[in-house]
Amino acid sequence: MKKIALVGCGRIMERHVEAIGANRGIGIALVCDKDESRAKAASAKLGVPYVLDYREIRGVDVVAVLTPSGLHPQHAAEIAECTDAPYVLCEKPLSLTLREAYELFSRIDKAGKVLLPVYQNRYNPLVVYVKNMIDGGQLGRIHQFICNVLWNRNDDYFKIDWHGTRELDGGVLYTQASHYVDMVHYFFGDVADHKGIGGSLRGFEVFDSVSAAMSFHGGVVGSLNATVCTYKKNYRTEFTLIAEKGTLRLAGTNLNTIEFWDVEGREKPDIDFTINHVYGKGHDTLYKYIVEERWDMFPSRKDVLSGIRLMEMLSY
């Protein structure tokens, strides 16, 4: 049985608790939060001990960093250096700047530990299906994509102390759309060139809306539009792919439905890709990979660094 410690008892912790509970062979051994009331509440709910300082963590296999975005590099590095856990799982984004990301990987390496970045949308069954088609050549040469992440985060969301701040949030590409930045790297590789513009339409320290055009070394061109300013509630997430041998359009929660399909020699797949959770089921899969020690299924360092490079260039 693999033991995991959760550091940060905020909003995303519940998704990790559910995902761990969906897998055999792994269990929560400890929780940590500097706010003792939150640590106590999580401890009581889960029936495990708590600590207020992650430096005190001992005897677990994995420590999951679930703290505010801008604190991820500091927390992940110090956990690697100060605990005996061999693996450090870190929620997205890994960092807000490329410099911090390089420093984090360096410190992880020096500590002799392994960093596991969380980009759970890679494990979305429909995303995996399309990735296999691209890599297998069924779509021929890929020409263009359009990805839109058109969401709402209301004023109450931004009352959380670190949301909307330059120091800890990073903006819409980091906190909401980073999974889709990672997805286009997953599909197409490294970005060769990009141009983008962002706006802080609601007066935050960071961009709440971004539009970007980019090209990849393989020749693919595309655009990514992201906002948290849609009226009242999330509008949609959508991804259109235009290729030599087909056109397809994905939509729905975390891109789990096929809205359009016209692919040479291939009928629309008769597969239920339904995801009944706002975060998708990717966290379940990543914990399955941890149990199975499938470390190769986590994003490569190259992909992570390329994604952070793009987010930083378009967000600051």
What does this 3D model show about the protein?
By secondary structure, the protein is of the alpha/beta class. The chain folds into two domains: 2-118, NAD(P)-binding Rossmann-like Domain (Rossmann fold), CATH 3.40.50; 121-277 and 300-315, Dihydrodipicolinate Reductase, domain 2 (2-Layer Sandwich), CATH 3.30.360. 31% of the residues lie in helices and 26% in strands. Strand 11 and strand 12 (246-251) form a beta hairpin. The termini are far apart.
Q: What shape does the CA trace take?
A: globular
User: Would you identify the CATH H-level superfamily of the largest domain?
Assistant: Dihydrodipicolinate Reductase, domain 2
Widest sheet: strand order? 8-9-10-7-11-12-13
What's the total count of β strands? Answer: 13
Strand residue percentage: 25-35%
Radius of gyration: 19 Å
Low-confidence stretches: none
Q: What helical percentage do the residues reach?
A: 25-40%
* Structural class category: alpha/beta
Distance between the termini: 43 Å
CATH topology of the largest domain: Dihydrodipicolinate Reductase, domain 2
CATH architecture of the largest domain: 2-Layer Sandwich
Total discrete domains: 2
The average pLDDT is: 94
Largest sheet: 7 strands, mixed
Task: Provide a quick synopsis of the model.
By secondary structure, the chain is of the alpha/beta class. It folds into 2 domains: 117 residues, Rossmann fold, CATH 3.40.50; 173 residues, Dihydrodipicolinate Reductase, domain 2 (2-Layer Sandwich). 31% of the residues lie in helices and 26% in strands.
